[in-house]
């Protein structure tokens, strides 16, 4: 089990006032858990400082521009390996079954392959299992880290820390293959409408408020929030 995975999960979630209030606890969790290198923790500090000092609306606008308006920066992992192919559906079902086998019931409008949700799940799994799953997705996280670095985004450090934990380097063939895909232009709204015209598939009831992933970690940090993303079965 790892509180650091939970902290990284919420850092990759839609920014809220509650998230801003929890940055001190998140900083402490990253430092005390011991799974990230000192260099990785130091690299994440600028993002934590931004979360503490910038206006929430500015943080939200930046988040949306990066992750919601750019398919090549999507936090839905299967987007980068399956796209709209028929393989994506079975892969999603398999991942859901993995969650359920681990006592993790997804009650979010996000897809099962959404990285913050995967990290939340892994935060409650044995470390060897978590490492194996992150190794499988490590090339995606390394590619995302490189794309974010090119955009001079402090979010790059979060993805880089996960790639480092998974033991994947940006120079690997699989990472370079992903990076060969041309970056989206988040300012080209017409092109983005064409890309995202299909409705997102949901795998649970709509919580209707805030960021479902961040609510869970914040609740565990004793900050009042509403419905959680997922519940661990007793």
Class inferred from helices and paired strands: mainly alpha
Helix content: 55-70%
Question: Regions with pLDDT < 50 over 5+ consecutive residues?
Answer: 198-229
Number of domains: 1
Cα end-to-end separation: 16 Å
What profile does the largest beta sheet have? 2 strands, antiparallel
Over the alpha carbons, how many angstroms does the gyration radius reach?
Answer: 17 Å
Q: Give the strand content.
A: under 5%
Helix/strand order, N-terminal first: HHHHHHEHHHHHHE
Describe the structure concisely for a colleague.
This protein is about 55% helix and about 5% strand.
What does this structure look like?
With 234 residues, the chain is mainly alpha-helical. The protein has one domain (3-229). Helix content is 57%, strand content 3%. It contains twelve helices and two strands. The protein has helices spanning 3-11, 17-21, 23-33, 38-53, 56-68, 88-101, 115-122, 127-150, 156-166, 173-179, 189-195, 212-220; strands spanning 104-106, 230-232. Strands 1-2 form a two-stranded antiparallel sheet. Helix 1 (3-11) crosses helix 3, helix 3 runs antiparallel to helix 4 (38-53) and helix 8 packs across helix 10 (173-179).
